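chain below, 216 aa
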Amino acid sequence: MIIAKYGIEFHRLDIDTIELLRQWRNSDSIARYMVYRKYITVEMQREWFNTINNIYNHYFIVKKKGVNIGMFNLRDINWSDKLAEPGGFIAYEKFRASRISAEALLLLFETAFYFLKLETLSGTVLKSNDSVVQTNISLGGEIVGENENSYRISISKERFLEKGDKFLSVANRFHNAKGFSLYFSQKEEDSGFRNELLEKVNYSPELYTNTLIIEG
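prediction:
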């Protein structure tokens, strides 16, 4: 599955990209911002992937102009209560304080609230990761708890629409963006993943500029 907007593409994590993610997560530049910092082996990564390769977890490799620049995710989705935990990172320093990073986070929240039709996101951010804390707050996030090392930040769809509207307007105008492009691979069609997910979200085609099954 690929979700595209703002010149950014979210490619759903698959067996071919889990090694890239593992290498990123084991690097010092990424691990220092993560709550879990232990070394991840190839076997551990494969076992983990088998537990999250379902409609309750969506991990995306973020691409810009064909270059892999990071990973964002929505995990542990509670479809009944419309809740999920967001997370992720930009892998390269030069993109972290850029418009690209901000637009990727916008796309993650839009994916959660408009495509997956969730109502609330709640996640943990290390206090040392101040730029991510501040960006989440600017988009409507609220600190709802904390410990010595981290904040618990929650953002509702209502707050995102209220606080994030000016950022959405700027990004949409800059890119002349009118909706998502949503693509599924033939493998996702054949496995039933596509239909299971679209039925779960009560798919509304008017939200998207394209909805296609692509080979792959």
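Residues 99-115 form the longest helix (17 residues). The mean pLDDT is 91.
thats it, cya
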